[in-house]
Specification:
The chain has 362 residues and is an alpha/beta fold.
Length: 362
């Protein structure tokens, strides 16, 4: 391991546009191309780190153009700084615009830690704690028709992926979602279902969906952010009405948010997404969850193998994550990278990664 100061020599960002096999639909809209950003950071001595910003407009309104602008603003003040003090640099980036674009914040922090870990020869999963190297991921059925949902579920099971995540709350309301869920359940009756509303359901719609699920004999493993992000009373009532686990996603973008969810008993699980506000904030949220007894889930936006591998390293290295949703590389029509996590059925492994996150552009 080297001991001299890891000084930043160069920093750059560029569009990373990756087509999908089919549009990825959630309750707020669909994305046909992952309009992401590749971040490159080079240290004196030659170590290079790669990061990815993955804005998802239907999720929180962030765009590629906004991420590129925030990242470009960092170029002048970053060069010459010591990346070993990455948390201080992360806070400065946040103060200079990263707060308004969590995906840019995340891409910047990934690039810093990748360069630092490559320089020191440390696998990123070990940097994050070394608790483990494996996770079981689900795969997502996006919005669409019942026939499309059934076909997607068949494909997921053919891949030997056990857990299925289903996007709900889109056009057509609970009746349409119930038809889709019935079709999925018929194809994969033993698959645990994570039902993700992306804050798109009303309280009345959520209650109707709960009643319909009971009539179908479907017991979900998790209800992920069905209601508006600020409707913590409704989330608590949903957990009480259904008796099922409720996860907060859009509701938690900071440690303060996590504290509020725990205090108001609005959810039993928090979905950590590094793209919400970066790695430093995600570590703070994990600390709150552990202290307050909230369960942990790792997820993401529509990300390539680069960012998804970092999330896998984060969750496996930290340990204690009960749910993982790290499937989006499977939705991309091309892979512009070499390396990354290994996938066997639904089991992700990062044990083979030698330094950093192990992903490089082709």
């Amino acid at each position: 391991m080297t001991t001299d100061h890891p000084i930043i020599r160069a920093f750059d960002s560029a569009p990373l546009d990756i087509p999908l096999h089919a549009p990825f639909g959630i309750s707020g809209g669909a994305q046909a191309v992952a309009n992401n950003v590749l971040v490159t950071l080079e240290l004196e001595g030659g170590a290079v780190g790669y990061g990815e910003a993955a804005p998802l407009p239907p999720y929180n309104g962030e765009t590629q153009a906004a991420a590129l602008a925030v990242l470009a603003n960092a170029r002048d003040w970053l060069v010459g700084r010591d990346v070993a003090d990455w948390r201080t640099l992360a806070a400065e980036f946040r103060a200079r615009g990263g707060t308004g674009c969590g995906s840019a914040q995340c891409g910047f922090e990934i690039a810093m830690l990748d360069a630092l870990n490559r320089r020191d020869g440390v696998p990123m999963w070990k940097f994050f704690g070394g608790a483990g190297t494996e996770l079981e991921t689900d795969m997502t059925v996006t919005t669409g028709s019942p026939a499309e949902a059934a076909a997607a579920a068949r494909d997921i099971r053919a891949r030997r992926i056990r857990q299925i995540k289903v996007k709900v709350g889109g056009a057509g309301g609970p009746t349409h979602d119930l038809a889709r869920l019935a079709a999925i359940h018929e194809v994969a009756p033993d698959s645990p279902l994570i039902l993700d509303g992306n804050a798109g359901l009303s309280r009345a719609g959520a209650s109707a969906l709960v009643r319909g699920l009971r009539e179908l004999g479907i017991t979900p493993a998790l209800l992920e952010q069905w209601l508006a992000k600020d409707d913590r009373d409704g989330m608590r009532a949903l957990a009480e009405e259904s008796g099922w686990l409720v996860a907060a996603d859009e509701s938690v973008c900071s440690a303060k948010d996590a504290e509020q969810v725990a205090r108001e008993r609005a959810a039993q699980v928090i979905n950590i997404k590094l793209m919400k506000a970066g790695i430093a904030v995600a570590l703070d949220i994990v600390d709150v969850a552990r202290r307050t007894g909230l369960g942990l889930m790792i997820g993401g936006n529509v990300e390539s193998m680069l960012a998804m591998t970092v999330s896998a390293c984060f969750a496996a290295g930290q340990g204690g994550f009960s749910f993982a949703d790290l499937d989006t590389p499977l939705f991309l029509a091309t892979n512009p990278f070499s390396g990354g996590y290994a996938l066997d059925g639904g089991m992700i492994s990062v044990a083979h990664i030698g330094a950093g996150h192990g992903v490089v552009p082709r």
